[in-house]
Input
Amino acid sequence: MLLSQVLGTRPDTKEPRFISSKIPYIGHTLGILQHKMRYYTILSGKYHHDIFTLPMFGGRLYIVTAPDLVAPIQRHYKALSFWFLEGAFTVKLGALSKHAAKLLTENAAGREVGNSLVVDGMKETHAAMIAGLDSMNQTAVDIIGARMDQLEAEAATEVDLWKWVDSNVSLMTSGAVYGPMNPYRDPELARGLRAFSEDSTMLLAGVFPSILAPKGYAGRESIVRGFQNYFAAGGHESGSELIKARVKSLTEYGIPPEDIARFEAVNGFGILINTLPTAFWSVYHVFSNPETLASVRELTLPLLSTTTTDSGAPLYTLDVRQIREIPLLVSILHESLRYHSSGAAARMVMEDFTLDDKYLLKKDSMLLVPNREIHFHKETWGETVDTFDASRFMKTQVGGRKPPSGAFRGFGSGVNLCPGKNFATTEILAVVAMMVLRFDITPISGSWKYPGDDGNNMSTVICAPKDPVPVKIRPRQGLEGGTWVFKASN
Ligand code: HEM
Output
């Protein structure tokens, strides 16, 4: 009992049910290290609580598994703060200087009157992602369009579909954010970002990172060097509204240039790490199902108009400005985020707080909402929860009930709704439309083999595929040999 009090884990009767481990204080930590996000699924399958407490060394971790609790958590965003953790995680992950760390963590949750770099930065990010949306999407489709011209010129290309999507959507997304001097044009940096994200747990722990997480450490430092050169050469001045706004805001707050480069290395997680697997699964689920492919071709064909160039060759114009208004396409993207979900929304409990008039949450504890628990909740999603249903998000009701507002966590919700949602959705759906109209993709083995989910990366909300997906990409008959242009802005 005394030890419990010293370690701060003595249960209060009003707290969510405590689940003890066989090895006191470190058992759950070992479980998380061994099973990663699957650990929460194992526990929730065993105990069936809407929310439970894991006593850990130095405190407790609350785990939420019920979709109905997500909206109340999100409503109380100051008491249960994402921004507080965002500030703290950025400092640790990016290895920011003490000076920058102080500026970034000061009033990060925005609970006090006065300045907050995190909150002000987030407001500016949202504004920039609205003002700069069309131009970012235009840059994105121009970049990937050029890559597709190359695919067509090769006539028949054999690739691992994941590698192709990963490298090309990485170029298109980072190019749209950072402009012509985009540091991620260097493939070493793109590889470095993956290693950095895969080692993020060890880097967050901060114990001998260069020895215990050498790949992630080296990856991060190569990105930091890339961004130092980019900013020194004024690369951001020809980049998007987003990068311009971010540099302006960080500079005004007094963040030194090296720390801005470190900050931007961490931002790679938000910009790229979720976007690439989401694009892969959206393309995979369309091409691997003949019915879905036929429907998507039929729905995207009206976006295509054909004229001729001055030399008489066909000129194909694909207009993706309204692509987010095609329900089946949006549904496929959302279902990809649901079905392959990973990761967790993390919140810091800033004060003793009673959630949903029932559960006492203690100040200075952490709360996690594992996305997979919410996305595979049978009562919410129905009997078909374990199958991929391309049109799931076109239905408004499941079993006569509308899923609660927090039940889809793909882009978060409330004040923490992903500011990149519209940009990522348009660019990914544009890739799908460009691929289905222009190419046939067939598996090299003759039939599609599901590659499975790689659930090891704890920093993403969607799994990458576990196995390679070898395919042949060929231009579709009848549409080859022309010039293609893409319209994402007025
Ligand atoms: C398919 C791609 C993407 C997915 C699935 C995704 C997912 C998410 C999710 C789930 C959250 C909420 C986290 C939480 O509540 O704990 C979030 C927040 C965020 N996302 Fe995205 N994101 C994507 C693309 C992007 C892009 C392209 C950008 C930037 C250009 C971006 C920037 C951010 C930022 C800055 C936040 C933090 C919001 C806040 O602190 O209030 N994301 N994203």
